[in-house]
Amino acid sequence: MPEKETIERARADKRARKSPATQAGEFVREEMHHIREGKHGARSTKQAIAIGLSKARRAGVDLPPPKKGQTSERTRKSAERAYARGHGEPPKRPPSAKRARDSSRPGAGGEVRGVPRVARQTGARGGGTPHGR
After folding, report:
1. Tens digit of pLDDT for each residue in 42-78?
2. What's the pTM?
3. Is there a domain that residue 115 lies in?
4. How far is it, in rounded angstroms, from Cα 104 to Cα 120?
């Protein structure tokens, strides 16, 4: 997930009628910082550029995927998916059951039968000792 500041800078570029490549540059810049901090396993600047462009497409920047023959089919397909996601298309498949249950993700429920996960883990709803012992 891109940082708020990055999205704001990209939006400012869009308002200033700058090209999609300039808008995407803000996301690439953010990734360069992440790689320098050691946030990713990635090390090369090429990887930072690829990650940044993907994030930009997913954030809705009008950066079209590369044409046939410019990059590998796999890269092109990935860019097409990212572009579609950033322009309102729903995901092709639902999240796995494990991800669907994960309450830490934004927009995810994480509740079973109306009892929040924290309450179930601590036994707060039923009283007594934690974990129902």
Report:
1. 788 899 999 999 999 999 999 999 999 999 999 999 9
2. 0.67
3. no
4. 15
